[in-house]
């Protein structure tokens, strides 16, 4: 009779199953709390910056629509004068990206703990990357225009140095997460530090580095279009000149040219990434 009552009551609960459910519930509660906290931070930031100021938004949208209507139809009468600045913009993005990769790689090797055991050197390298990343490229453009004069060169230098901070950070993280087994094998075989990096580290992280380089080139092309605002050459110079004259049809035409070029650059980047995959 007692056996029948035991069977009717169901099988005994598994303590491990209860612990698993309790842990899952706790993890869910923590995730919900974090999501709510993040949402609260976002709402506070939006309120702090005036994103909920309905009066300003209602007044601003018609003005924005007015400017947009004045850009139509776009005026392409001076398109021949934009070819050289567009080529300058493309050259600035390519040169700036290439220079940033050359400069970022050694700094990234110094910032990664598995290629630089010295903690002080690691910290110094990471501080340098943080510094370069924290200074906007436009500010660097102003400094380099004051140093070397107007033209594409200050734009290249500004894009390159600002990019070193971001490219170096991603390179260092890729190097840090490289598989330790090939590195240990190369060291056990008697390889020097340079040989270990060349034969055991770089082959592992080369795909991630190529991806980062392509993405940064796409970003630098978009960033180089506004470097003309500080006299660093490129199509941005033509754009700022048209804005100062309030020639909005020409502004619209230049923006369409920039959009076309950005689309082409993004397409080239996607094809290169597919080939490297």
Short structural summary:
By secondary structure, the chain is an all-alpha fold.
Structure notes:
This protein is mostly helical and 277 residues long. The chain has helices at residues 2-8, 15-48, 54-70, 83-111, 119-134, 137-148, 152-176, 180-188, 193-224, 235-244, 248-276. It is globular, with a radius of gyration of 27 Å. Mean pLDDT is 82; it is low at 1-10.
How would you describe this structure in keywords?
mainly alpha; 0% strand; disordered N terminus
What's the layout of helices and strands?
Blueprint: H1 2-8, H2 15-48, H3 54-70, H4 83-111, H5 119-134, H6 137-148, H7 152-176, H8 180-188, H9 193-224, H10 235-244, H11 248-276
Helix pairs in contact: 4-5, 4-7, 4-9, 4-10, 5-7, 6-7, 7-9, 8-9, 9-11, 10-11
Mean pLDDT: 82
Main sheet characteristics: none
**N-to-C order of helices and strands:** HHHHHHHHHHH
Q: Which percent range fits the helix content?
A: over 70%
Number of helices: 11
* Rounded radius of gyration (Å): 27 Å
Strand residues, percent: under 5%
| Secondary structure tally: strands | 0
End-to-end distance: 68 Å
Low-pLDDT segments, ≥5 res:
1-10
Net shape: globular
Computed structural class = mainly alpha
